[in-house]
Amino acid sequence: MTSYDILLTLSCYTLAHVLLKAVGVTWGVASRRRCSRAAITSTRFYTTYTSLAKPLVSVLGQDGSSINLQGDNMENNDACAQNMDLQLSNDNCDPDNLERTDPYDAYDWDSVSIIHRKMELFPKWQLPAKVSLSLSVLFFIYTFLREVLHPFLVHNRNEFYRIPILVINKVLPDVAITLLTLAYLPGILATILQLHRGTKYRRFPQWLDTWMLRRKQFGLLGFFFAGMHAIYSLSYPMRRSYRYRLLNWAYEQVQQQKESSWIEHDVWRMEIYVCLGIIALAILAVLAVASIPAVGNSLSWREYNFIQSKLGHIALFFCTVHTLVFAWNKWVDIKQLIWYTPPTFMLVVLLPLVVLLCKAVLMLPCFSKRIQKIRCGWESSKRMGIKCVLTRL
Ligand code: HEM
Questions:
Q1: 3-class SS at 341?
Q2: What is residue 114's predicted lDDT score, i.e. its pLDDT?
Q3: N or C terminus: fewer CB in 10 A for the chain?
């Protein structure tokens, strides 16, 4: 073996070692990120490992951009610094390393990983996700029966090709508008309840409390479904089935010796409802961005309230008008009733209309002034009377 060979082997070995080490570091940071906040803040755990983590902090050069602190509210305090140290202690995530340092702490790591495994996955998203899934299945079955099975059984027409795009693109907007309504409905219910009780100091029922806390998730899922609907809708002209349809219509028109197929009111209908859909989606995008904690924290309470409440209701209004204009004169078209069932756009628009109507009524000065007073701590005389009786008792 020449000295050149030895040098080459050594450099290959060093390169492989560095690469393996880098993979190990990446894995360590990633697995660290997955650690639960509760587990990370365990002080006993911290005191043992900070010493091991410190050298690594210096190795990584404290590159904050690649570190997820997982602590929304822990700003620059000790706990945050502790977490940072802990999250970077990648090599020390390895249980073998722990055993070598202190058997007691190795046991601790085991319990931490058990807690970690038992943690719920996306706890805040579970209810909204279940509701979205149930709505999707329901709307899919309903649309499938009306738009695919009915023509197949009654007219012997094969319309199964509609499932991937056309049927799904009924399910998506229907779920989207329902989820958006579900994001604004609890606020309306809570306001009505406060007006009825004449105080803000009584707790809402548990179900309303939970629902209020899931509004953000309902809204974001609604935005997701609406975004998908927009992409599906804009893909319509790309479809081969659409092109064949267009050719067939053109042929029929020639046969009927019609010069123009322009229908003025249909043109206006489509221009208006697509425009409204785009505006609604744009406003929903603003709401989604404002719901990111970093963005939300940079806004004042008034700005945040304006975006999430006022702009949110405006978005719901545009979505509802988009659906109403899409329906246009189909509301009075008896042919829309298939197997005695109304079309989906008629069903889904009812709840948003109720929410928007309630919101409009609650904005009337007689109600809005009263609710403002209640939210500032004022209590109705009836409620004060009850309180006096209770204190005397
Ligand atoms: C870029 C934005 C949008 C475009 C281009 C668009 C386009 C369309 C199109 C083409 C349809 C007819 C679908 C069909 O009959 O196959 C439709 C229907 C509908 N859209 Fe949109 N839309 C947009 C945004 C929205 C948003 C933000 C919502 C609300 C969440 C929404 C809710 C609806 C509803 C409920 C229907 C009726 C679906 C049914 O027939 O059951 N759209 N939209």
A1: strand
A2: 75
A3: C
Check if the beta carbon of residue 28 is closer than 8 Å to that of residue 93.
yes
Structural tokens at position 223:
């935005």
Sign (positive/negative) of CA torsion 100, 104, 107, 111? negative
Termini Cα distance of the chain? 101
Q: Is the CB of 173 under 6 A from ligand 1?
A: yes
Cα dihedral value 377, 383, 384, 388, nearest 10? -140
Q: Which residue has the higher pLDDT, 13 or 88?
A: 13
d(CA 375, CA 369): 10
Q: How far is the CA of 319 from the centre of ligand 1 (A)?
A: 8
CA of 230 to the centre of ligand 1 (A): 7
Rounded Cα–Cα distance for residues 318 and 276 (Å): 6
C-alpha angle 44-50-55 in degrees, rounded to nearest 5:
165
CA distance to 6, 66, 93, 98, 392, per residue, from 20 (Å):
21, 19, 16, 20, 76
Residue 364: strand, helix, or coil: coil
With CA atoms as reference, report the closest residue to 47 among 114, 104, 91: 104
Q: 76 pLDDT band (50/70/90 cuts)?
A: very low
Spacing, Cα 150 to ligand 1 middle (Å): 23
* Mean pLDDT across the chain: 79
Give 105's pLDDT tier (boundaries 50, 70, 90): low
pLDDT range class, residue 119, cuts 50, 70, 90: confident
The predicted model gives 346-375 an average pLDDT of: 96
**In terms of pTM, does the model score above 0.70?**
yes
